[in-house]
């Protein structure tokens, strides 16, 4: 075992008794015609409200730090810790305005206020105050902008002065002062740097200045609008050296310093949905990838693509719980994992995860509101057909245009389906649609018309619920109902009808049909089991079905339903079956031996909903908690979740489709995720395991032994406790991406605990009345499947 850190603790009782404790942490995380998808716009709504000007940063351990008007919150994915500004600036500190909070390139934090406070906080929690030194010789000093760049930090003031802190001298210098306008100082609003020599300053009065460090020259950049009208300007530099300028009144511009080219960047209602003529901007931000983001007053969030300048708008949608809560975006920040933190009016915070760009996304609706998806089909004309659970049939054309059928589209009023259970394409390129409540339809592309298929010989109630469709290699269409199984040819002619209770079939309704490469038809029936078709080549209606006993319950208390819900075959033509209870099963079709994965360590907690084999014979499985990649040969499982770019974590039963080009489609509660198996990559995390709270005698350790907690609990390396301080507790957390802190823990007090202890719920180890002696407290963390070791950087 390789220790991540050492934490020494001594209890002292006179000179004889010593209590020596070493705390160590270990952690492992196991990593394992084209229709263009929509941009995944599913925001995570953060649980806590802050301030409209709140800024988000990360510390070296991965905690998220969030500023407010009264202090800084620290969030580790589980809990909040709060440090008030009065502990930083002094107990007389009173603030009702924004506090500027920025992390520089050396991982130190700068805090500045309009009251003139300016403080540097290092990673160990030590403070250096600069207010007194800066206020010398100044009538007043009010910070309005803080911008770290390379090994310097730049500050702007309400008095129009530009300041620079340089680590080489550890001093702050006044670099330049903007000229007065009408005998009044210009208030600096934003600062940006397009390179190490060129600094840009904007003002609340509508002016932009450039400052060249090498020649110490300040020069105004003339803007093409009337600067007599007072309005604020925002600045941000992108990764290509361009300066973006947003006017409160006159729109968006970009400036290229090398060519001195200044251009308007029009944002019109033909590109995005606008309620007014020109957006009013609150904030500009350039992310790590180089995309430029703009927060507006009432027009939502705007993204400008770094490569093609394509505009994407994110707005509130009444029926979309994943959209912004409101359309006024006041601040934008980015964490170390590339997740964007969006602060809206009233301090409501949203997170736009750094989604995997190789995963395509489809909402399943014409208005881009995420919909529950039951099935998908990619047809030969390049269209993607998406069947939803209650919102009709969505078709995404090859050009990206979306059509919704089965709702209120008068052009297709004869199609009534809202619950689409299955879609297949026949050899004549017609699309068959199975619906719940409305029966079976066929779409004729040449006529652009839907036709309802009349089914003789079965009740109206049964014909209304078409549960499953399948096209076999003989171009026949199989359809299942509550009375039996129907077989059509490609011209919609009924060839055969097999009722349950006849021909060897048992059960109440077939949920799945599959044909292996040898031409064998396999049928799964609820309350009936698995059946193999014995086709009569002379008279199809006389075909029979043989029941295959592929699983036996081992005890009477087992209430799981092992009847097939979905089936696929591997390269050896063996069947892989998902049961109606979500268990993964395997059937050797040669000798009919079987295997259940119910108690497999990787699957026992998963409810499998659908599955597909990729071109490398690796199995992809959707579930009620994520998407999983199973290497059958290596017996290893990798998992993907919404933070990796999926539509969500919950996927629907039977909602899977493999296109001819190898792309895999999985439907879920909030749309469709599609990807090429070789391109999907897991977002690899580098988590840290740390103690985040220590209590002695049920009080914070900082109250009883403050000199030993001076650097912060996470950085404590040793503790010395008196003999009467033998009751204590430790809270710990593995900090990776705080959006998904699903780690598992075990701990022990070596020398006291004989075995590792697994906490339930709370990540707290509590000990009382521990006798004096030498002990070592150890905690380890990892995935649900295995613990291991991961080095921690302190």
Question: Could you please describe the fold and organization of this structure?
Answer:
By secondary structure, the chain is mainly β. The protein is built from four helices and 65 strands. It is flat and about 105 Å long.
Throw out a few tags for this protein.
single chain, 794 residues, mainly beta, 5-stranded mixed β-sheet, 2% helix, 43% strand, flat
Proportion of helical residues: under 10%
Number of helices: 4
Please, what is the oligomeric state?
single chain
How far apart the termini lie comes to 19 Å
**Percentage of residues in strands:** 35-45%
Q: Give start-end ranges of low-pLDDT stretches.
A: 1-23, 25-34, 788-794
What would the principal axes of the Cα set say about the shape?
Answer: flat
Structural class: mainly beta
Number of strands: 65
- Spatial strand sequence of the major β-sheet: 61-1-2-65-63
Q: Residue-averaged pLDDT, rounded?
A: 87
Describe the main β-sheet briefly.
5 strands, mixed
> What value does the Rg take, in angstroms?
32 Å
Blueprint of the fold:
Elements (H helix, E strand, L loop, with lengths): L6 E7 L3 E11 L16 E2 L10 E3 L5 E4 L3 E5 L4 E5 L1 H4 L9 E5 L5 E5 L4 E4 L5 E3 L1 H5 L7 E7 L2 E6 L3 E6 L4 E7 L10 E6 L4 E6 L4 E5 L4 E5 L11 E5 L5 E5 L3 E6 L4 E5 L15 E6 L5 E5 L4 E4 L6 E4 L14 E6 L5 E5 L4 E4 L7 E3 L10 E6 L5 E5 L4 E4 L5 E4 L14 E6 L5 E5 L4 E5 L4 E4 L7 H5 L3 E4 L5 E4 L3 E5 L5 E6 L9 E7 L5 E6 L2 E6 L9 E5 L15 E6 L5 E5 L4 E4 L6 E3 L11 E6 L5 E5 L2 E6 L4 E5 L10 E8 L5 E5 L2 E5 L12 E9 L2 E2 H4 L13 E5 L5 E8 L8 E7 L13 E4 L6 E9 L12
Parallel strand pairs: 1-61, 2-65
Antiparallel strand pairs: 1-2, 3-30, 4-5, 5-6, 6-7, 8-9, 9-10, 10-11, 12-13, 13-14, 14-15, 16-17, 17-18, 18-19, 20-21, 21-22, 22-23, 24-25, 25-26, 26-27, 28-29, 29-30, 31-58, 32-33, 33-34, 34-35, 36-37, 37-38, 38-39, 40-41, 41-42, 42-43, 44-45, 45-46, 46-47, 48-49, 49-50, 50-51, 52-53, 53-54, ...
